[in-house]
Amino acid sequence: QVQLKESGGGLVQAGDSLRLSCAASRRAGSMGWFRQAPGNEREFVAAITWSNSPTSYGYFADSAKGRFTITRDNAKNAVFLQMNSLKPEDTAVYYCATGGLYENPRQYQLITSYDDWGQGTQVTVSS
């Protein structure tokens, strides 16, 4: 089991930026970010492949494309989600999770593709 710890959430205004971090006890095939707003189901935000290869691939939900980027630091076993131009609808608890490597990019969007989850970090965007 991989231990995960998210950090970097907070209260910001619309248009601001936040950088979320996820520290892992060890690497997995991929790392995903999901979010869950009150009353809503948990939804995919972004994912990145995480292997020893110098090349990584990122995947994004439509709501995140053009505003969010995802990066990794292999030396620190950490993955980062840079969120720019934040909107009130981005308000949610953000979770990181470890997954595998999949040929079909669609797999990275599925909750069932991920095994271990962090406790989450709250992001609140005021208008």
Kindly describe this structure:
With about 130 residues, the chain is mainly β. It is about 0% helix and about 50% strand. The protein has no helices and eleven strands. Strands 2, 4, 5, 6, 9, 10 and 11 form a seven-stranded mixed beta sheet that branches. A hairpin with a 4-residue loop joins strand 7 (about 70-75) and strand 8. It is globular. The relative contact order is 0.32. The mean pLDDT is about 95.
Radius of gyration: 13 Å
How much helicity do the residues have? under 10%
| pLDDT averaged residue by residue | 95
How many strands, what sense, and barrel or not for the largest sheet? 7 strands, mixed
Structural class: mainly beta
Put simply, the count of helices is 0
> Uncertain regions: pLDDT < 50 for 5+ in a row?
none
Percent of residues in β-strands: over 45%
Helix-strand topology string: EEEEEEEEEEE
Characterize the overall form. globular
Total E-strand runs? 11
Q: Quote the distance from N terminus to C terminus.
A: 39 Å
Short description:
With 127 residues, the protein is mostly beta strands.
